[in-house]
Amino acid sequence: MDRQHSDVLILGGGVIGLACALYLRRAGAGVRILEQGTPAGGASHGNCGTLTPSHAPPLSAPGTIGRALGWMLKRDAPLYVNPRPDFERLRWLLGFARRCNPRDFAAAAAARAAILQRSRVLIEALVREESLDCGFAPSGTLIVFRDRRVFERERGHADALRRLQIPVEVLAGASAEALEPALAPGVAGAFLHPGDACLRPDRYGAELARRVTERGGVIEQGARIEGFRLDGDRIVGVATSSGEFSGDRVVLALGAWSPLTARALDLRLPMQPGKGYSITWPAQTAAPRIPLVLKERSVCVTAWGDGFRLGSTMEFSGYTEGLNRVRLDALTRGARVYLRNVPQVSPQEEWWGWRPMCVDELPLIGLSTRWTNLMLATGHGMLGVSMSAATGELVTALCRGTAPAFDPDPYAPARFGL
Which residue(s) pair with 351 in the sheet? Predict the structure, then answer.
């Protein structure tokens, strides 16, 4: 057999592609990953590393559009939409708005809960079974409010989680401050999600890559995808800057780059790049013990044994590269409202990356209806790390024709005719 041919050829070496590769190798399949840069070096690298079944309810809740309109043109708001005309972005935003209704919200929440809860269990097992050195901790997450009106309005969020069998505890402000001494006085209330966990995402990605190669998988770094060779309804070759590769199955796991690459396959993925930011410092002595979401400012705070990170924000500005100082400063400014101590020294890293935002806030996982040997594994939004292991398990089951551990239909590309 040609050395460039694999049982499964995976396009993209982020945490999704790496998790797919590891589960496929565990099942005995030959795998090769094509990665144009460093494995797990994109959106997988700089997120806050929380594993959050608590984030099952999607952003598209009834009433979201009204609240978001007040933010959209403020450059330092949690949600920013670049006003430059962009037809594809406008179409995506209109599709998102149509889904801000009770029926679609409930359906998306249930599907997100299924994959998030499964992945939370699998990641803990994967860390143990594969000896992944990534700072995993069953830490829980604390959602913190300083505005009592917002806290009371969001109580329905806790009720929605309970209906999904996701544990949540509603805490008074004083109880939250006692639980997490790093919080500044003045907390109105909090939601504690004891089933959540955290890890260091850059190390998680590096450890997945290590285990893929140790188990016999191949990672082709510096392999930029340049085109496809097609025969009927099959992909028979993938042209890259490192040569041509092929696979019995081809898995598209390119994150935010997926829509651009998919155009060469005559597929229009309903996705937009959602730009996020993070700031990382060395470990801080007075850092929070529990990962936090500072709700009104939409800032995520994670502390590990070797680091402290602020992250989040959502910016729709297409594929515009580079750091936006206004939005980075909004992270630190927001954190100082909630925390007793925010580092004053220069950070180790200021980061930006694109999240692959699917219009219905569910990932695209499953066989293409257009190409018989193409599998999609993309569109995980802000939850790629959280959903990674369950995605790898599901892709493996679908490739092998075995029964999945949870219903794959809500994530199938067929829902968009893909």
Answer: 278
- Helices H / strands E in the chain, number of each: 12, 19
Largest CA distance in the chain: 66
d(CA 396, CA 402) in angstroms, rounded, equals: 8
The domain in which residue 93 lies consists of: 5-416
Domain count within the chain: 1
CB 408 within 8 A of CB 38: no
> Which tens digit of pLDDT belongs to each residue from 302-360?
999 899 999 987 888 899 899 889 889 999 999 999 999 999 889 999 999 999 999 99
Buried/exposed code over 273-307 (b: 16+ C-beta within 10 A; e: otherwise): bbbbbbbbbeebeebbebbbbbbbbbbbbbbbeeb
Q: Closest Cα partner for 377 from 33, 30, 4, 25? A: 33
Q: Domain holding 89: CATH number?
A: 3.50.50.60
Q: Please, are residues 75 and 288 in contact by the beta-carbon 8 Å criterion?
A: no
